Prior knowledge:
4 helices, 14% strand, 51% helix, alpha/beta
Amino acid sequence: xxxxxxxxxWDYALREGxxxxxxxxxxxxxxxxxxAPPKVVSxxxxxxxxxxxxxxxxxSFAAVGDFAADPSAALLALE
Length: 79
């Protein structure tokens, strides 16, 4: 879905029960406007490597799990 627009990605995640992990702030707005599902994990690291994102996600495993389990949560920001 690399070339898909935000709406197509949102709809796909909703349909398939996926969580969106992104650096695109447009998804933050969608999460706040529409709520979950899908849930959005916002990566706020600025210019960084894929490895940096991987390390952030791994170190935030418990927080992401808690976020996934909370039916009222729509957006999680990780820094």
